[in-house]
Amino acid sequence: MKRIILFFFLLSVFHLVGQNEIPLNQRWKFSKGDNLSWAAFDFDDSGWAAISVDRIWEQQGYDPYDGFAWFRLKFTIPSSLKKSAYLKDSLLIYLGKINNFDQTYLNGHLIGVNGFAATDAQKEDMSFIKAPTNYWDRKRSYKIPLNSQLIRWDAENVLAIRVYDEGGQGGMYTGDQTLRLTRLTDYLMVDFGREAFAFKGNQLVKNVYLKNLSSVYKLNGEFDLEVSHKTSGKELREKKYSITLKPGEEKRIEISLPQTDHSLVVEYEFEIKGEKQELKFKEETPYILTPPAPDSPRINGPVITGVRPGRPFLYTIPVTGKKPIKYRVEKLPAGLVLDPNTGIITGKLDKEGDYKMVFHAINDFGEASKEFTIRVGKQICLTPPMGWNSWNCWGLSVDEEKVKASADMYVEKGLRDHGWTYINIDDGWEIHRDKEPKRDAQGNILTNEKFPDMKRLGDYIHSLGLKFGIYSSPGPLTCGQYTGSYGYELNDARSYAQWGVDYLKYDWCSYDGIAKDTSLPERKKPYFVMRYALDQVDRDIVYSLCQYGMSKVWRWGAEVGGNLWRTTGDITDTWESLKEIGFSQVENQPYAKPGHWNDPDMLVVGNVGWGPNLHPTRLTPDEQYTHISLWCLLSAPLLIGCDLKTLDDFTLNLLTNDEVLALDQDPLGYQARQALVDGDIQVWVKELSDGTQAFGIFNLGEKTMSYRLNFSKAGLRPQGTLRDVWRQQSAGTYNQEKEFVVPSHGVVLMKIH
User: Fold this and answer.
1) Of 102, 165, 417, 507, which is the active-site residue?
2) Does the annotation mark 680 as catalytic?
3) What is the pLDDT of residues 354-398, one digit of tens each?
4) 678 tagged catalytic
């Protein structure tokens, strides 16, 4: 649990409203390159450029640039800080987040590396640039004892930050850098994220942990728990605890709350006696909207799929209902074979055209049928891919067993029955840059010890009726510094085909060092090269371009043969990240269509962490409903990024609402448009293939709001009948206008009939 504890400790440090903080987010100087003499207190940086520390350096004229760069700041530390402090312990320097790695110097002396304390003896230690890639999302803070000779009171001090960016975005970028003295509250960890709320009967239960992180101080205080209903504001419960924590001691508090029709807001407050500082935290309880699937069969998933002539075909009919289920296909074309016990269809179709058939599913409780089309032609990926990707949970710690376990969970937890198809390995399967050989004598890429047999793994995934995805880069190295495809594209395409790969994520990363400039032809070039290579093999491989929206990739992604393309930087499990990425998908709206999709990055629900340590997503339940609703309205690829073995009831509920998923898989392939922006309210409208419409009303504000929607103003039918898509029930009729209650950071998702 080290990673989770760290998160909540940092939360207590940096989101406590206090006095006597000195901002360190202005007047920074910057230089590309690397020289340890730049750490010196008296180094002359007058010729360096000014830079902001609230955004990456690529957004400030340094695009492309990877490798070493330095930031320097001169500032004064007033002695009044320690005179007014209750706890005269340490000076705390907070630098926000740094992409990717840092060595931090105060007045010429090394004080920290990647968020951990360090000494001058580590100056020459270059292992700091081999830390986990996900350190770009790690907050950096460093403590200096008040009696340290490094601190120059009432005089000029110098911070020098040596940053290494191994690919993609770089620099100091959060803009919230500060300096202050430590407080007693810095030693109190209120860990309410170690466990997610569990559904037990009609109750929600979990444990909250309080820990004294100090080895010296005893903490005495009052712990106050307040509970209210999020949408009504009604106070439901308040309970106070007197807490004493000895140095290093941890105590557990059991919480049991009623399940309600919406989130409860749970506020934790701890006031430490003596210091009179308060720690305040807030979380919201999960609530389930999706009704359970009936015992009788129900056929889910898209109504169409595409395959190229003569290429291997694999499709599993997604059906919920009580097992066992028997499958039958009416008008199944010659060349394809159905397994009647699993619903898996395999084979080949050589002739172009639309093959229309009817799926049937039968069990002891009834029978279901559904029309389905296989389109044989030049285009594949006719609906957005739905799958799982290893990155957001396992990062570079991914291995064969974790991938196989995810495939098993698709079957065991029923995700396959709702249309989830792909099992994708992200970075970390290749040979690392520091090891040899990386390829065999024929130039074929080798796998590392974590993936001893890719063909065997692909066969295992296919045996479950699922599809197999993999990852590479057009540069010589991937983002994680493993072997890329540069110069060996055809070799790699042939290897993928041999292994049975169905999906390739192709990540820009080290191609910055190959590209001559940032011109559009240079941005397109590597993707043309791999597209050509993929066309030479006898296998359909979905082609996912990952280059973070550079040069407005949505305008040319289809031209280079992409089936989907990232439109943004990496997402994280915060509201700020979700809001910035999700609600910026406006300009690219016209470019989404069957076979070609805008990709706002993977889903951040469930247990995530970018490996190897995981934590429950920091998104509230309403933010998660917003996440899934918006991505489905956007016709976005849906790639689960959590550990499927620890999938809780709430997250499984989010991922298995077939009416919500049907919006994403609608064959028209229309990406929702931003129809209205009214203060904190946004309305997004999606046209559907049956001539109906779906819409989401999103509340980006901090309070629950009542919103009267003018349907005509939003481009919706002025009269009609509504269906609540999450609850899968009628929501009545409307005429011109209707009022909706939308929770903060939440959504109302409707379909018009």
Assistant:
1) 507
2) no
3) 999 999 999 999 999 999 999 999 999 999 999 999 999 999 999
4) no
